[in-house]
Amino acid sequence: MDNSQPGHVIDFRTSWQATSFLTQALKIYVNTDHNLGAWEEIDVVQLQGVAPLPEPETYALMGLGLLALAMRRRKQAV
User: Fold this and answer.
1) Structural domain of residue 25, as residue ranges?
2) Which superkingdom, per the lineage (predicted)?
3) Which of 1, 15, 44, 57 is exposed most, by the fewest CB atoms within 10 A?
4) Which positions ≥6 away from 5 have C-beta within 8 Å?
């Protein structure tokens, strides 16, 4: 519920830090009673490791796609 008075600005702050992980995060601080010492916090973070190379299945699918493309072109040329 929004208890802010008309004309008051609600300040939302975010901060991001580069890591070796894919990070999806949301952090919200809300001053609920207009007192600098009273803040509500919502904090959601999800971390996933980054694969340095594509998985073998990726190469297999790419190879099948290229093979299908080559067969289609060859069929059209005949």
Assistant:
1) 21-77
2) Bacteria
3) 1
4) 34
pLDDT at 54: 75
With tokens 């007192």, the residue in question is 35
Predicted TM-score (pTM) above 0.85: no
Q: Is position 15 within any domain?
A: no
Instruction: Answer whether 30's CB lies under 8 Å from 39's CB.
Output: yes
Largest CA distance in the chain: 79
47 strand-pairing partners? 23
Amino acid at 41: E
**Residue 43 half-sphere exposure, CB side, CA atoms within 13 Å?**
4
Q: Is residue 48 part of a domain?
A: yes
What is the Cα–Cα distance from 26 to 48, expressed in whole angstroms? Answer: 15
Query: Minimal CA–CA distance to 17: which of 8, 7, 27?
Result: 27
- Could you tell me if residue 46 is inside a domain? yes
- The average confidence (pLDDT) of the chain is 69
